[in-house]
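We were asked to recover a plausible sequence for a given structure. The inputs and outputs are reproduced exactly as logged, with field labels preserved.

PROBLEM: sequence recovery
POSITIONS: 108
GIVEN STRUCTURE:
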């Protein structure tokens, strides 16, 4: 709501995002415009209440619901995620060990 008010008072979307601590290099220079357009549309259609009520999924024609997956399909789908999580876990263990070694060196 505040951003819509600031926009109506003459500030640009980028200006508003920068003033609220967003790094445009990180989120993309077009993101403020897209967000503000969506927020203005929400405000125009639903007023301030539109920001307080969860509306996602209501009346959505999004993805059709898929049939129940077989156990084999569930496993096939889970395997890449398991591999990723194992790799992430190994990385974090190595990082923790490096931090421990750095602390030991500092204390020596």
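RECOVERED SEQUENCE:
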């Amino acid at each position: 709501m505040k951003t819509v008010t600031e926009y109506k008072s003459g500030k640009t979307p980028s200006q508003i995002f920068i003033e609220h601590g967003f790094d445009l290099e990180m989120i993309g220079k077009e993101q403020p415009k897209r967000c503000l357009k969506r927020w203005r549309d929400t405000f125009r259609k639903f007023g301030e209440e539109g920001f307080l009520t969860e509306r996602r999924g209501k009346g959505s024609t999004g993805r059709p619901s898929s049939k129940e997956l077989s156990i084999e399909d569930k496993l096939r789908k889970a395997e890449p995620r398991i591999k990723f999580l194992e790799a992430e876990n190994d990385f974090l263990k190595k990082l923790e060990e490096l931090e421990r070694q750095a602390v030991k060196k500092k204390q020596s």
